[in-house]
Amino acid sequence: MQRIPVGLVGVAGYTGMELCRLLAAHPELELVRVTSRTEAGKTLGQILPHLHETGLAELVVTAPDTQDLAQACKLVFLAVPHGTAMDLAADLLRKNVRVVDLSADFRLRDPETYSQWYNLDHRHVSLLEQAVYGLPELYGKEIAGANLVANPGCYPTSVLLALAPALHHELVNPEDILVDSKSGATGAGRKPSTATLFCEVQDNFRAYSLGRHRHTPEMEQEIGVLSGQQVQLSFTPHLLPIGRGILSTIYARLKTTASSEEVHALYRDYYAQSPVSARWVRIQTPGVWPETRFVRGTMYCDLGLLVDQRTKRLLIVSVIDNLCRGASGQALANANLMLGLAPDMGLPVAPMVP
Amino acid sequence: MQRIPVGLVGVAGYTGMELCRLLAAHPELELVRVTSRTEAGKTLGQILPHLHETGLAELVVTAPDTQDLAQACKLVFLAVPHGTAMDLAADLLRKNVRVVDLSADFRLRDPETYSQWYNLDHRHVSLLEQAVYGLPELYGKEIAGANLVANPGCYPTSVLLALAPALHHELVNPEDILVDSKSGATGAGRKPSTATLFCEVQDNFRAYSLGRHRHTPEMEQEIGVLSGQQVQLSFTPHLLPIGRGILSTIYARLKTTASSEEVHALYRDYYAQSPVSARWVRIQTPGVWPETRFVRGTMYCDLGLLVDQRTKRLLIVSVIDNLCRGASGQALANANLMLGLAPDMGLPVAPMVP
Amino acid sequence: MQRIPVGLVGVAGYTGMELCRLLAAHPELELVRVTSRTEAGKTLGQILPHLHETGLAELVVTAPDTQDLAQACKLVFLAVPHGTAMDLAADLLRKNVRVVDLSADFRLRDPETYSQWYNLDHRHVSLLEQAVYGLPELYGKEIAGANLVANPGCYPTSVLLALAPALHHELVNPEDILVDSKSGATGAGRKPSTATLFCEVQDNFRAYSLGRHRHTPEMEQEIGVLSGQQVQLSFTPHLLPIGRGILSTIYARLKTTASSEEVHALYRDYYAQSPVSARWVRIQTPGVWPETRFVRGTMYCDLGLLVDQRTKRLLIVSVIDNLCRGASGQALANANLMLGLAPDMGLPVAPMVP
Amino acid sequence: MQRIPVGLVGVAGYTGMELCRLLAAHPELELVRVTSRTEAGKTLGQILPHLHETGLAELVVTAPDTQDLAQACKLVFLAVPHGTAMDLAADLLRKNVRVVDLSADFRLRDPETYSQWYNLDHRHVSLLEQAVYGLPELYGKEIAGANLVANPGCYPTSVLLALAPALHHELVNPEDILVDSKSGATGAGRKPSTATLFCEVQDNFRAYSLGRHRHTPEMEQEIGVLSGQQVQLSFTPHLLPIGRGILSTIYARLKTTASSEEVHALYRDYYAQSPVSARWVRIQTPGVWPETRFVRGTMYCDLGLLVDQRTKRLLIVSVIDNLCRGASGQALANANLMLGLAPDMGLPVAPMVP
């Protein structure tokens, strides 16, 4: 039986590599094009020796060419930097190819916010309306009908899934939310730099981009949608000496007198009614706090909740695998939805622990 | 459709956890019993929170009971220490259940060698003849007909797959082989001890059990079978500050004038004719040296080869995932073979890199 | 010349080991007694092979005996668990030996708070008044005259040094402070447990003790002293896959309109007027954010500051080495002060980077 | 009192950083010049924020200028790549400045071997005779009188100290020695590259430069001197996911019937008679195997020995800190000797464990 042909622009980075891992085992999608400006001409097995002798090994890397991609593929994943992605997306959409964009180019509805935070004017403003924010639990129906999906940022994925039920039920004050996030180093990409060398990251921990990380407006936008009001979010990202994984510790001022049990129940019910059939958001048992390894290699978002009566805050600990749920796995789930497949098709069932 | 019921004795250790990961996604086997003396009464989701809300979460852990296991299961995996496994195996076999034993109890054909290296008399000597050494590429046919499979040790798996073609073709002198192996810390098990605390292992590296590691006679036995002569092997294991992975660097005195290209070809051909259809042993392209991550989470054994004319030695670098190929994945492959299923059923296709 | 004899109760844990490292190079203090219930009879070189053939190697470990300690030592460091330390301290003080207690037993002024958070009644309430909280920059003069110093907790050290200038100058609202801290695994001690095994900590990250960590009342007490009002602090600790190091990210609601430059200046001035001559608190250049490695092996506390106009919060990033500044190094600095020596005598000058 | 002025060419790499750490605490040497082509004009505190507010912080980085270095310094450390170092050394020697060269440029006595392994013709052959190989235990007297010291490679340091007593006493056959070494990633330098990114090194292990590492001829040269015969060495380096540390596992064919106890005694005696008064080589107690952390931050070389009667081999495990003993610490010890100071002046006493 014929599988659906898909393409991947930008195979040499970590999100590209993760998509290869997932597509290698997908029963209905076939990766027929992989592109990379720097690696064109080599086979995938040559540039990624861990794929040697797998089904993807002989696929030849090409230079990105939208004409060729459009002829060969029904859907294309863009795993290239913001600024580069928007033109490719526009071009592919014009040629009737569906696009899942892993960059930030179509996440912000407001082009002015985009230019302010990314120091770049948006060149395809008309597409912003058409783009669907690819968080399946919140926008599952819209994704199913979309031609262009803006795959969410890794930090926003971990934060929005954690806050959605609380905001929906008005358990917390949206104006007093504070997010302290910690990410594994795959989030920093595969481009060589001194700051991401092994000897600079291992046995070390640091904060970065304080007060100015680009995922801030993305979270503010979606918290705004969920709460119906504009908010200013305190968000601080940190760099963990691990490969995969994001843990966000979220502090929100309580507006409710609901007990911890009631809050747990509201969270469980919220996700039981999610438009996607997959049950990726797991509310952990009270007293069990999510760890990044609990979700390694999967689409799970594990949440731990505490109603802290002492400080009148709701504490939420949220973990995802930044490469899988925070990028390529979510992109594949979105592709599944766009192509009418089961949302969790080709996605790992059990996390890799240890 | 009914899946084949299987059981797992010893779920709380790392090999038990890895079997759960793999069985959670297996299309034809159903895990119906998991046992642990210390955790009996809890659900699997309670003792392993990363399995919360997966298909295995509600399975209740029981105390090991061969009567119950025999009634419920067609095949049982033993993931308990040597010494404990042999009695359970004997009991289960008597009750007509097939057994894959992950311990060392049935690996050595000679009970005297067993008692000498394990300081323990073997209580089921008669079963030693019946047991098949579970290395699929070497004993695939015998495994398919076995009731009792002795799953190989992690170090021997990495070493024997690396040496088999060279010994078969008499490329090297079996009396002058030296193995320097390095293993991730999952190989040390999950029992609490000062020596395996995070702060003792991280940012550190050490050798251990010099001149007396228990996998030595196992390798000597199988090298003896492959070469037709008795050998003494120099084997030194080391503890790596990583979770999964074994890399063995093997030095063997050359007996051949074959070129590097010819040796690569002989290796490729040897495994192309393996009795199992799965192609898990990958001869990497000359110049590409295997890294432990290339095989993470999979059954692959990657080999790098160098005919070193300067020192007249064949150098082999061999990597496996010690938990998957070196233990639970290989156990599952053996179970597949014993039950007439495709050998690679339920085993991951692509390694998790990064 | 005779050096001053000191003793160490509890040499086998990480704080004991760190004190040995520092005392091995101290020009004026001589370690003459080391005790450990479990290791008594062995030499220090035997139980800590990294000290083999150093000046401390031949020191014989004894069982703790206050009579013997009092005869041999002028000052004793207690590196034993809370609950055990208080009786030893009382006994040693009675015998006219000065004590630096690294446990929590004398940190809280209020015995009721102690029993509430530590589930233990304090057996030496009268000593609480006498004990000085051993944070040299805040209590340098009192420490110099003390017989009993309560060495601060590691988290409180990182947090109080970060907040003292802001509270002193009333830059922030003491009732809206939130502390998100991350600690290396040495903070969890050296006692074997599954949760601190290498394979459970590496490539992983988690929060713990949410809403109920025992360092919370210690910080609330000292913030109370600094601000003149009782406060409730939101404090969440996390476990980092590194050995040494704490990074605290602190969010405090601004009460001032001071610019970022002014705040930096106030911080620098505050510590320039510290009662101890050592200059351990370093205000990093704006834009340079402290990393845990910047202070590895030393007494430094590095601070990064941001006046975040968007969210009206003061953001402070504070790093210390939890074993040196957060425990044994600070204990040694306190001993130096108590014995009339220069506060930084025997303490490393430059951090170990990389 | 005036300290002796010294300079450092190449401050931005890891060996330069390590020299800064050590010189910051040296009582008799004063670092008065640090150079870096890329960082000239900034202060040391700016490019290395962990030195912020230390005594070295205000030192301004200059572009390398031998005229200026010669005027300001009595001795200069060269921490630049091979090929670059030789011209600087020649120039400085001409200007009567002593030189400790941390590169490989003056380690090999034979210029042809140099050009063969380094693909570069030596431009200062006449200096090769004058250069002393800076391994203090073997060449302590020559170093004391030298103007040019070739600081040994990190791997050779760990291997030669391990083999010297065995070769001196003819315990082993110099023609059948095999060295399997593992190094921390600081050995790979600080230049950005994909292969040394955190996400490529962590949770991974690999061999590299099989059969062709440039430290091979250096070891062969010195083994030749020690044994009086030309040898071919099997040497395989590997990359460890740790910062500092080398562990070499050495296998040598026994020529002696000496017992393990006798071999231990011969080793201890050999180093007791070393020309340097410092006792850096520690023969660990039989049964205690050296770990890389045992020597972290120090000049120690710890050795573990086993006479393996089964395989007729002497097994030696040797560990050093590749940055301290294997590079900058050894360079400082050599400088101490050249300047008539105690060899261990300014070098740490106790390793940093944990």
Automatic annotation (TrEMBL), chains A, B, C, D:
Annotated EC: 1.2.1.38
InterPro entries hit by this protein: AGPR, AGPR_AS, AGPR_dimerisation_dom, AGPR_type-1, NAD(P)-bd_dom_sf, Semialdehyde_DH_NAD-bd
Keyword Hydrolase: no
GO biological process, alphabetically ordered: L-arginine biosynthetic process
SUPFAM superfamilies assigned to the protein according to its UniProt record, in alphabetical order: Glyceraldehyde-3-phosphate dehydrogenase-like, C-terminal domain, NAD(P)-binding Rossmann-fold domains
Compartments, record wording: Cytoplasm
GO molecular function: N-acetyl-gamma-glutamyl-phosphate reductase activity; NAD binding; NADP+ binding
Active site annotation, chain numbering: C154
Pfam families: Semialdhyde_dh, Semialdhyde_dhC_1
Residues of the Semialdehyde dehydrogenase NAD-binding domain: 5-146
Catalytic activity: N-acetyl-L-glutamate 5-semialdehyde + phosphate + NADP(+) = N-acetyl-L-glutamyl 5-phosphate + NADPH + H(+)
Keywords carried by this UniProt record: Amino-acid biosynthesis, Arginine biosynthesis, Cytoplasm, NADP, Oxidoreductase
Pathway membership: Amino-acid biosynthesis; L-arginine biosynthesis; N(2)-acetyl-L-ornithine from L-glutamate: step 3/4
Entry similarity comment: Belongs to the NAGSA dehydrogenase family. Type 1 subfamily.
Cross-referenced PANTHER family: N-ACETYL-GAMMA-GLUTAMYL-PHOSPHATE REDUCTASE, CHLOROPLASTIC-RELATED, N-ACETYL-GAMMA-GLUTAMYL-PHOSPHATE REDUCTASE, CHLOROPLASTIC-RELATED-RELATED
Name this polypeptide is given: N-acetyl-gamma-glutamyl-phosphate reductase
Lineage: Bacteria, Pseudomonadati, Thermodesulfobacteriota, Desulfovibrionia, Desulfovibrionales
